[in-house]
Structure formats: structure tokens, C-alpha cells
Amino acid sequence: MSSNQFSGNVFSKIHDEERQGEVLLQPEIKETGKKLYLESYGCQMNFSDSEIVASIMTDMGFATTPQLEDADVVFINTCSIRDNAEQKVRGRLSVFRQAKAKNPNMVIGVLGCMAERLKAKLLDEEKLVDMVVGPDAYKDIPNLLEQTGGGQKAVNVLLSREETYADISPVRLGGNGVLAFVTIMRGCDNMCSFCVVPFTRGRERSRDPRTIVREIQDLVNQGYKEVTLLGQNVDSFHWEEEGSAPVNFANLLEMCARIEPSLRIRFSTSHPKDITDEVLHTMARFPNICKCIHLPVQAGNTEVLRRMNRTYTREWYMDKIRSIRTILPDCAITSDIIAGFCGETEAQHQDTLSIMEFSQYDFSYMFKYSERPGTLAARKYEDDIPEDVKSRRLSEIIEVQHRLSLASNQKDVGKVFEVLVEGPSKKTAEDHCGRNSQNKMVVFPKGNSKKGDYVQVLVESCTQATLIGRIV
Ligand code: 5AD
Ligand code: SF4
Description:
With 472 residues, the chain is an alpha/beta fold.
């Protein structure tokens, strides 16, 4: 088991398709030992997996480096969700090729969803790759590294029904010591027809809630103030053991909220078919459970939703929105939306725009449909919407979202919010930034506030992306 009292330097570069890329650096730098260069792409779950990988590598005596050229081992944790995510990784591999030409002993490993999707084929396609490791095989990294030491190629892409890495304490990479992410479940059983995740991350499994509570308690002891519970579909969290009552997601939320009242709890992602009123009522009962729900709609038309295998209708989704608005009147709602799915007509696209208006999303991640090999949609439906039509529909979706985000922020002008200070704002060191419960970014003159403080901020103006105010 590894320790959270990490003493080496861990460096990782995070590129997120949805969010902007970041450079992450562990505060303490150690200049000894073997060096790991770790780059991570994709969703927050991948970022958390990189923290598990960093923990395993730390136990093997590795310290991470920001310098690719200095590395003994180069790991790239990959994403397969859309084709452009994979293209970015291919681009990076060609940069790694130049580094390896100068340092032939360098071991290059591809981790994560692309490793799982392409398996041993990746070794043929990308000759420089020495190691291919799927998302459930990270504990095998020490053995795999040993194999590459003998000059062999090493592959482990076995998916597991049990692995949750519950016994590994992640090394917190590049964070600010205030916010942390805790994985509560892995995999997905939903089989949305467009999505490659059930194939790359395998069957859904929940993590022992006691290990979740322990990890969060540890984070509290280290001074963390906010934890985001992560899973592909958190609402189907389920833990059962002989001799004790089963634990569902609402129960888990309550257990986490009770650990420490000054610790904020967030979670992502919720599937509209699984989020229950019990979860909403639990959110209402605990002020430290943040009032923000990421509830991806994907599309607004029932027939498109059926082809997507989302298992809910337009009306069912709208009912969920109504329940949230009733039980949690001040809750932010955010979404994922896909433009130009197979067979989508112009009228069906209009249904997406109208459900966005109905739901009044505060924020959305918006994508053009990208066919993924092996998915249900790739097998069953033709990717028949021309690229220019997809682009136009996506820009209409983005336009609606920008208007909704601005309107939502304008409604907050004049209100006072509790904000958790994350640190200096991007634009000026005179300002601090942090989020309110609704996960909106708030910027304000820093005054005496420190990173990790809760401050009350009166919102005086806004942009589409940010609330601007002052401490009161
Ligand atoms: N094409 C476009 N977007 C996709 N997503 C998942 N698969 C695809 C795909 N093939 C989006 C969905 C999902 C988010 C994480 O990525 O909106 O919720
Ligand atoms: Fe993919 Fe659907 Fe699972 Fe989300 S719920 S990971 S979109 S299959």
C-alpha cells in the first residue's frame, strides 16, 4: 500500500478535451531516483487513474519529471471517447518518438482507454510503444516494467469485475491542496449506443464504501476542503455485504457528508434513468452537498434517445428536471449534448434545442457525434449526417448554451454566495477565484482571504462564464 505522505516530485500534464489543459506539479521536488513523465488525457476519471498510477510508480522509487527528455519511463494515459481524442494521442506519440531516438532506453507506455481499445495492435501500429496497459491492470505495472527491462514488449489489458483500486492511496497530482477527486465506482453497464466506455472500462463495479470514507477522512486530515465523488454512473452505486444493510448512492452521499460539515461534497456523473428522489432529498438535507447535478441529456428527441439506447424519453427527462427544481430550487443543472447523431433530422435537432431551453442548463459539454468502432451505433446505424450539418447544429447548440449560461449568471447578480477560495484568478494576482455550491466560478479582490477559506461574496456583475463580485 502506498502512502499519501508522498516525498518525491510527481509531474503530470493534464489535457482534457472538455476542460483546458493544465500542467500539474507536486510541491516537493526530489532530484533522485528513476524518472517518470506522465501525461493524461480525457475525463476526470482518467486524471484520477493517473493518481493511482503515480502512487504505484512512487512505491517503485520513481519521481516524476516535467522534462520528457529526462524520463526513464514515459506514460500517456489516453482517452478513446471521440476520434479527435485518439488523434491527439497519436500526435503526442510522434513527439515521444524523437525523445526516444535520443534516449533508446526510454520505456514508453500507453495506458487507459486507447490501450484497452487497440490492445496488442497498438504495438504494431506505434512501433515505439513498449507497454500497453488497460484501466484495470495498473497493479501489474511493476511486472510489466520488468518485462520491458528484458527488452520485451509488455501488454496487460485484462478487464476485471472486481478491481476498484480501493487499497491504493492516490498521489494527488498537481492539485491545489483544496479540491480532490475520489473514485467510487468503475466501468459502465449502460451501453449507450454511441459510447466506447463500456468496452474500454468494462463492467460496472462499486468500491467498498468504508474505503471511500477512509480516503475522504484522510483528505480532510490533510486539509482538503472539497471532494468530488467520481463514477461513470454514480447513481447506480451499490454495495452489499452479508450482515450489513446495502448501501446505495443516497446512503453513500450521506456517509460522505457526515465526515466533516466543512468539507464540500460533489459528484459526477448522473444518469437520468438512475438518479432518485432519495438522492435529491439527501442533497437537500446536507448544506455541504453541493447543489449541482450533471445530468447529461445527449439529445432531446425520444426517437433519437431510443437509438442512443439511453432508456429514457424526452418526457421522462423533463420530469427529472421538474423533480430537481421542486426539491432543490437553487440547484444548478449541467449537461452533455451530442449534435448530429445517426439519422437525426432537423426537427429532432430542434428538440435538442428546446429541451435545453426547458432545462435551463447552467453549463453543457457539447460535441459532434463521432463514430467509435465496435459500438452499437457503429454496428447498427449509418453515421449519415454530413460534417457541415453536424458543425452547424453544434454551433446552434453552443449558441443556445451561451445564452442560457449568461442568463443564469445574470440572475445571480445581487446575490451573496459562499465561495471556497481556490487561489489566484487566471487574470490578476490581485483577485482570488473559487466556486460556489452551484459550481460557478466566482472572481473577487482577494482582500485577506487565503486558499482553502470559505468567503461570502456579493456578485456585482458577470460574464457568460464567471461571476464577479466582492467579499462582504
Ligand atoms: N461522439 C460524441 N460524443 C460522445 N460522447 C460519448 N461518446 C461520444 C461519441 N461517440 C459524449 C457524451 C458523454 C460524454 C462524456 O461524451 O455526451 O456524456
Ligand atoms: Fe458511456 Fe452511457 Fe456509460 Fe456514460 S452512461 S459512460 S455515455 S455508456
